[in-house]
Here is the input.
Amino acid sequence: MTSIEKTKAFVFQTYVRQGKAFVSGQGTCLTDEDGTVYTDFLAGISVCNLGHCHPSVTRAIAHQAQTLVHVSNLFYTAPQADLAAMLVDKSFADRVFFANSGAEANEAAIKLARRYFQSKGHTNRYKIITMEQSFHGRTMATLSATGQDKIKQGFYPLLEGFIHVPFNDIDALKAVLDETVCAVMMEPIQGEGGVIPVDPSYLSQVRSLCDETGTLLIFDEIQTGMGRCGTLFAHEGYNIFPDIMTLAKALANGIPIGAMLATKEAATGFDFGSHGSTFGGTPLATAAALEVVKIISDKAFLDEVVEKGAYFRGKLLALKEKYPRIIDVRGKGLLVGMEIDQDAGSFVADCFKKGFIINGIQDKVLRFAPPLIVEKNEIDRLVAVLDSLFQAGL
Ligand SMILES: Cc1ncc(COP(=O)(O)O)c(C=O)c1O
Here is the structure.
């Protein structure tokens, strides 16, 4: 049996997959079982932000794998301590809780927000406002937080206490933000929702509303963080800071990790025994993440992401001028969406046949999230393929 046949036979059929199995990756390139090389404009959905098998991250993983892979959180380890200190140094936050995935980081944020108020005796302050079209994960609490009905089907009843409001609509938020709300939770740019950027004035009004009402503001930066939008964390580009932030995906460039960061005040919601995870902050994952944060937080690296993102969007906007079937081009840094007037799935498959990995979301949006090390000539080659596909009327 081939890998594809085995997967079809033995793995839950929950994912729609392209019909190839990959065997290796290097930089922006992935190679399949037949030796065909693809240029990756998805990076494992914004995970391999430094490209596949980045040499110094691989070195850090190999070194740590030979030194110490796991001890429980009943003990201390240097990689976990160093990563927490570095994340605090480079962010608004004072404390970090480590988890293993985005959903788990968000679970921690949701639990912290509730417990912050409940530990102060405000037991009625438990509701969390999130945005329509948002995506926060697939566990029961994060699914409840998510603002997309289609992925909730069959899982009811969900967790109570979540209110969904339209994104970028301050009046809708004001209408429901009362004394029973403990937190507002949002992505600075909705990724799975269709690459929809926040309106900067909305974001600043949300911050002010939270300040006025003492409500915690949670930014889910699982997709937008780690340099993806041209700053280490996307919110820095708006100069608006949360009380709690979640990270995962690219934090360790492919080794599973999640992190929930909070201000000193918000962090008081968790005390001894209030939350935990067996694998959270394992030496292997945190050693990899330490190397990733060092590289991505470099200003010159981030400036290049800004420049390449502008270059890429400029090229796509030029295509939009040429083809009315392109409805919109949007995004920030190297998180880019292109809305088209047709099913994105067939377009993605056509790109794949031509050696490029992209992704389709919300039916008609093409999402591009290449490794941040992508070269301009690779952008040019992808744009030429897109041009040829539109030209051919596909
Ligand atoms: C914004 C956002 N939050 C949360 C998640 C869930 O992360 P994970 O799949 O690691 O649980 C994702 C995954 O796509 C995401 O994009």
Remarks:
- The pocket of pyridoxal-5'-phosphate is lined by residues 45, 101-103, 106, 135-137, 187, 191-192, 220, 222-223, 248 (CB under 6 Å).
- The mean pLDDT is 98.
- The chain has two domains: 3-53+299-391, 68-296.
- The CA atoms of residues 314 and 329 lie 9 Å apart.
